[in-house]
Specification:
The structure holds two protein chains of two kinds. Chain A is an alpha/beta fold. Chain A contains twelve helices and 13 strands. Chain A has two domains: 201 residues, Response regulator (Rossmann fold, 3-Layer(aba) Sandwich); 130 residues, Response regulator (Rossmann fold, 3-Layer(aba) Sandwich), CATH 3.40.50.2300. In chain A, strands 7-6-8-9-10-11-12-13 form an eight-stranded mixed sheet, with helices on both faces. The termini of chain A are far apart. In chain B, helix 2 runs parallel beside helix 6, helix 3 packs across helix 9 and helix 6 runs antiparallel to helix 9. Chain B is mainly α. Chain B is built from 15 helices and two strands. Chain B has a two-stranded antiparallel ribbon. Classes of the chains: A alpha/beta, B mainly alpha. The interface between A and B is large, with 53 and 59 residues.
């Protein structure tokens, strides 16, 4: 150690200082990005971004959403864009990891200077950036998650939901089950061990008072034998699922292996027939999925004009990727953003975009109009029931609306939003 | 280096780095904060592997332990009405203690194991910790613990952005961790670690207790990793099992090897690479005229590939890592200068040409 005294140290310190200054200069030079008057908007483009899992375990179920949205924006841009501007959709991979979401969302806001973050996906991931986006006044539109957290206009004035919230879904599904199976059935639930499962079960118990068995699973554990076994032992005949697609498939497959038959009703987040078929395989899938009840709030039937348009866009701009519920979801989000942008004026700003949504003029393309208003950031106030019959998933019966408190579940008497002008919103 | 010099250098470095934050935009400051967080972990790891010769694949788990310790303590103190600096300090100390205790247990077992067996043990830890965290109710499962949003403290609010403040805090903690490690490295303990690494029997004959030294190395390294987890939790306001997987552990090790095993400068370079590489690769792919479907597919996976290639190239061409290559280049330059100008008038001929400290740290393992 004594060899290291005196001369080298001072030189060392000087060199370190030199390195720091050089480093600072380089970084400062590369970091120059002058903020525009209104972030994300210039002469001929509007830049927006999203965070979504493109890698990691959640990617399989969700990566097709952002691809579908990008395809719809391409279609829109080829047809003149909005107010003469084309939309650039920057998709960032967060691998469904909240820590990564933090990083990529900051990159979107500070590097790409996006006008808004649109359709950030996932409850745990998006919760991690909720404060950041609101603190910085960045519109946080159409969050791809059914958590009721996004509908808090007082606390989070910049955040708007998109999915029907899990409480609403739970209430409508419970109401449907009660009407169909009566009081003699034994009702149970298998839910994800986070807000998804908790909120959905809260919706169920508002209507059904009590559940015979409440089971939970963690996404990181790919085995639900214990949970399904407990439900079988409890004699459950009608089972609700607050599960993502992969775990809906896992639950149905596990039950079939155990020779356990029951009626299954699943949240829209885990009830997409083509996706489930992908998990379960063409051979056994159709038999396992027959009779599956789920909910939806977007155009869905094969002969719906929206679906026909989306199919066309998917073939032309998405390389004919498999057409699933995710495709419809992604394109619906893209259309809804385009509509909001069209209503935000000739030269949109972050403020005018949010004002447009708060005015209630943006109706979307759902089976019922969007519920946005001055004091509501809730997208869909109700859902329809879908079932799988003969290998085809479609709506049955009425559309039901309710609040996310303990209000009644009532039928909706309005119309679905009609397709106009080939899905190119006019101001 | 005398202890006082190390302390002064640490303080000077911190002041310089804080000055640097004024030159950076908020995103750059956020990246700087992440670099500081990872630096705590890589610096601890490089001391453990390079100095004491013990391999750890479990440093992500130790970071997670620190992160959970920080988040839970912070939450408990918030509900008890404690806030501000006392809460931050208490939570940081708790993070260091939790990670240190875990490291102590790991070190006690690890001191009996060598090479691949030790690697296997630490690998078990990094697989087990996220799995346990995901299934313990108090730790909020996969979602992790979310912390209350905390802005810039009052008087500074008008002056600096949130990211700059976070960078300051992160840099301060990293400075403490790295200075501490430098003191350990240059002191008696560091000498003992190197002695044990090079020859356990000889070290024992010289009156050193190898097992004790190895356990101590693990504890020191774990404490700094825990501090890294605490900083990461402070910056991202959340801690979740998904952030501390095996892949992070491996990336930390790769960063240390690429930076230069056993060198704190190398650990810093490794931490910078860890944060900047994904961003650089993303920026480059954004500039290339690739169809959006291709960019979506390679986003997220390409950085790992580049990192892997970098590792192979460096290990093949410069086994001392980036820091080793820098030292070698410096030594070459000095030798050349001595040849061309045999009698420099300004500086006395350096008695320590290639410093023995550097040669003692040249990696022989890993």
């Amino acid at each position: 150690m004594s060899l290291l005294r005196t001369p080298p140290t001072r030189r060392h310190a000087r060199r370190t200082a030199g390195t720091f200054v050089a480093l600072a200069t380089i970084v400062a030079l590369t970091a120059c990005s002058t903020p525009a008057a209104s972030p994300g908007v210039d002469e001929d483009t509007v830049t927006i971004g999203t965070h979504t899992p493109l890698t990691g375990p959640a990617a399989a179920g969700y990566s097709s959403i952002s691809a579908a949205a990008s395809a719809y924006f391409d279609y829109l841009n080829d047809n003149g864009g909005i107010h003469g501007r084309s939309i650039e959709y920057v998709v960032k991979d967060d691998a469904y990891n909240p820590a990564t979401t933090q990083t990529v969302v900051r990159e979107l806001v500070q590097e790409h200077q996006v006008l808004a973050v649109v359709n950030g996906l996932g409850t745990p991931t998006h919760s991690a950036v909720l404060d950041y986006l609101n603190e910085n006044g960045v519109p946080d539109l159409f969050v791809a998650s059914g958590s009721p957290s996004w509908d808090q206009p007082e606390t989070y004035p910049w955040t708007f939901a998109f999915n029907a919230d899990y409480i609403t879904e739970g209430k409508v599904l419970a109401h449907h089950a009660q009407q169909t199976h009566g009081d003699d059935a034994v009702y149970c639930v298998l839910g994800q061990d986070d807000d998804f499962g908790i909120d959905f079960a809260a919706g169920l118990t508002t209507v059904l008072d009590e559940l015979a068995s409440t089971q939970t699973y963690a996404v990181s554990n790919q085995d639900v034998t214990a949970q399904i076994g407990a439900m079988q032992a409890a004699g459950c005949t009608v089972n609700f699922l607050a599960t993502v697609n992969g775990f809906t498939a896992l639950a149905l497959g596990t039950a079939a292996k155990m020779g356990y038959r029951a009626q299954w009703l699943t949240s829209s987040s885990g009830g997409d027939y083509p996706t489930l078929l992908g998990y379960l395989g063409e051979e056994n899938g159709p038999a396992l999925l027959e009779g599956l009840v789920s909910t939806n709030y977007l155009p869905f039937s094969d002969d719906d004009p929206w679906v026909e348009l989306f199919r066309r866009v998917n073939d032309e701009y998405n390389g004919g990727a498999p057409f699933t519920g995710n495709t419809i979801f992604g394109m619906s989000v893209a259309y809804t953003f385009a509509e909001a942008l069209a209503r935000a004026g000739e030269d949109p700003t972050r403020e005018s975009l949010v004002e447009a949504l708060k005015s209630g003029d943006v109706v979307g393309n759902g089976i019922l109009p969007l519920g946005f208003g001055a004091d509501s950031h809730r997208a869909f106030g109700g859902v329809g029931i879908t079932t799988v019959t003969g290998g085809v998933q479609d709506y049955v019966g009425e559309v039901w609306t309710t609040d996310n408190g303990d209000g009644e579940v009532v039928p909706y008497d309005g119309e679905a939003v009609a397709l106009e002008n080939e899905g190119i919103p006019q101001s | 280096m005398s202890a006082r010099r190390t302390l002064l250098l640490g303080l000077g470095g911190l002041i310089l780095a804080i000055g640097l934050t004024f030159l950076l935009d908020p995103y750059r400051n956020y990246q700087l904060a992440l670099v500081a967080a990872y630096l705590c972990a890589t610096a601890g790891l490089t001391v453990l592997v390079g100095l004491s010769g013990q391999l750890s694949l479990g440093h992500a788990a130790l970071m997670a332990a620190g992160g959970y310790g920080f988040a839970l303590t912070s939450q408990a103190l918030t509900s008890a009405g404690v806030g501000g600096l006392p809460r931050f300090l208490a939570a940081t100390v708790a993070a260091a203690v939790v990670a240190g205790v875990l490291g102590l247990l790991l070190g006690l077992a690890g001191a009996r194991l060598h090479g691949p067996y030790l690697a296997g043990l630490t690998l078990t830890l990094v697989v087990a910790v996220p799995a346990v965290a995901a299934s313990v109710g108090a730790l909020q499962g996969d979602r992790g613990v979310q912390m209350q949003f905390e802005g810039v403290p009052g008087p500074l609010r008008a002056l600096i952005a949130l990211e700059q403040w976070q960078a300051w805090v992160a840099l301060a903690v990293a400075a403490v961790a790295v200075t501490g490690l430098a003191l350990v490295r240059d002191g008696r303990t560091g000498l003992r670690m190197r002695a044990v690494r090079d020859d356990e029997v000889a070290a024992a004959l010289a009156g050193i207790a190898p097992a004790r030294v190895k356990v101590l190395a693990f504890v020191v390294s774990s404490v700094t990793a825990g501090l890294g987890g605490a900083v990461l939790t402070f910056v991202t306001q959340s801690v979740s099992p998904g952030a501390y997987t095996v892949s992070l552990s491996l990336l930390l090790l790769v960063a240390v090897v690429v930076g230069g095993l056993g060198s704190l400068l190398g650990a810093a370079l490794g931490a910078v690479l860890l944060v900047l590489l994904p961003w650089l690769v993303g920026t480059v792919t954004d500039m290339l005229p690739l169809p959006s479907q291709v960019t979506q597919r390679i986003d997220g996976t390409l950085p790992l590939l580049v990192f892997g290639l970098l590792l192979i190239v460096l290990v093949a061409c410069a086994p001392g890592g980036l820091a080793g290559a820098l030292t070698a280049a410096r030594a070459r330059r000095r030798a050349r200068r001595r040849l061309t100008a045999p009698a420099p008038t300004t500086a006395p001929p350096s008695p320590t040409a290639p410093a023995p400290r550097e040669s003692a740290r040249t990696p022989t393992e890993g």
